[in-house]
Amino acid sequence: MKKNCSRLFFYSTTLLFLFLVSCEEEKKKMTETDLIFSSIKKDQAKWYRYHKSNIHLASEFLPLDQTGDTIAKKVFLEALLTGDFIAMEIKSNTSEDTYRLFKLDEESDENIGVTITADTYPEYRHFMMEGKEFPDFEFTDLEGKTYSKDKLKGKTVVVKTWFIACKPCIEEMPQLNQLVEKYRDREDVVFLSLSTDPQQDLEKFVTTMDFQYRIVPDTGQFIKEKLGLSVFPTHIIVDENGVMKKVVNTAPEMISFLESTSIPDLQEDEVPPPPPM
């Protein structure tokens, strides 16, 4: 009887030891990203802080599925739209941001799914605009200068949609003015702003607020029906062939893309001469 008890004790102790070792090994296998996911999936506020600080869906990133395989950005965004997944940042040896899909489960805060769907939709909408031609147009700015798709062919056009009562639209204007100043000698780059406000209101506005973009009034219908946009501000970079290369909502995102990829440097013999002293 004692021998059986001793044997049972030995087996039990051995099984407990193996179980603890197995758990410890499983812990070691979990990456830092796995641990963060385990924490934030249970708390919508924690997840949202992480998402806003680390995930930038408008950026150029490497999208990975649940298993770590590379997938198309469209597929990645469509998975987020279901509300069943969130994006997690993965450390890599490259300078390119890398995001991987993590599936939410029954332990997850149900509010996360609703929020990620709403947060992803405008990014998906913008992504689907990229690569398409900018609609035909005929605009006249506050100074009476006209613009059309044909007239701007061969130029990079930086478009901003806005209206006077839009606080974020106004707050970013000093930063946009600095951008215009940086490219002031580049005749191949045009900064065009489309406002929903009437000309009279805009003429009054520019007497108190400096905005260096060329301002086109009364474009609300074009913005809504031709571009399909309803969020302000929205920035669109149109290349020399009239194709929309980037669509984003914030000035920093637009400026980052503009300066990194969209405008070719002028050749040395094309650089404008310095102004006379």
UniProtKB/TrEMBL annotation:
SUPFAM superfamilies: Thioredoxin-like. Pfam families: AhpC-TSA. Gene3D superfamilies: Glutaredoxin. PROSITE patterns: PROKAR_LIPOPROTEIN (PS51257), THIOREDOXIN_2 (PS51352). GO terms for molecular function: antioxidant activity; isomerase activity; oxidoreductase activity. Residues 128-269 form the Thioredoxin domain. Keywords: Isomerase. This is Thiol-disulfide isomerase or thioredoxin. It comes from Salinimicrobium sediminis.
